[in-house]
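Lecture notes, part 5. Sequence design as translation. It can be helpful to think of inverse folding as translation between two languages: the language of shapes and the language of residues. The source text, in structure tokens, appears below.
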């Protein structure tokens, strides 16, 4: 587990700036967190990323679920699902949430992403689930996100956006980019016809190859 340092706080800011520069997010709609030895570091609410300094990053001490926040601002309105994910999943140490264009469009359809491409395997199964809709920042949204992330490292949030998780921030950002690309590809394929879906056996074969180091599987 990483220590709560200025450098770790800066990596959160750098990640936010990168997401906006690549189109993976816009404005202050997304949020990023890292699990540390002192608790959960998370972006503050409604502060432009270009104005953010390491001191502006908020610490949610302990498991992050008490509602206590240490810092000069309010934590992201989505702090509940960040903290809840860490409590439930020992394998996850960073969470990225964004309102990227294609993932958000798919979430508006309330549609799971089936195994239309083998890269679905990096999210832990043969689909990326879409969570039921709930108001942003609510306990219901946190509960819905946890259900959609069961045995998965990414999901859509109904009529909202996406969540991508990783063993570290680099892996979480990678998955976020891949999920947005997958949603874009699925959208384009559906506009032409009915995409073919890989079988469960085919997806499992892909995952086995990835986990043994073949091709695209960056380790945290």
């Amino acid at each position: 587990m990483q220590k709560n340092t200025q450098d770790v706080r800066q990596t959160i800011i750098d990640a936010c700036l990168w997401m906006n520069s690549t189109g993976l997010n816009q404005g202050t709609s997304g949020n990023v967190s890292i699990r540390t030895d002192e608790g959960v570091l998370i972006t503050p609410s409604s502060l432009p990323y270009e104005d953010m300094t390491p001191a502006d990053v908020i610490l949610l001490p302990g498991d992050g679920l008490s509602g206590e926040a240490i810092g000069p601002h309010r934590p992201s309105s989505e702090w509940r699902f960040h903290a809840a994910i860490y409590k439930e999943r020992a394998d996850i140490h960073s969470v990225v949430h964004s309102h990227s264009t294609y993932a958000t469009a798919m979430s508006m359809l309330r549609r799971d992403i089936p195994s239309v491409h083998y890269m679905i395997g990096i999210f832990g199964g043969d689909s990326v689930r879409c969570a039921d809709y709930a108001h942003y920042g609510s306990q219901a949204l946190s509960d819905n996100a946890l259900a959609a992330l069961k045995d998965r490292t990414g999901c859509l949030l109904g009529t909202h956006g996406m969540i991508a998780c990783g063993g570290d921030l680099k892996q979480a950002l990678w998955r976020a980019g891949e999920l947005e690309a997958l949603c874009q590809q699925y959208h384009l394929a559906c506009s032409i016809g009915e995409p073919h879906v890989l079988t469960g056996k085919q997806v499992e074969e892909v995952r086995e190859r990835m986990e043994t180091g073949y091709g695209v599987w960056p380790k945290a």
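The translated text above is only one of many valid answers, since several sequences can fold into similar shapes. The chain has six helices and nine strands.
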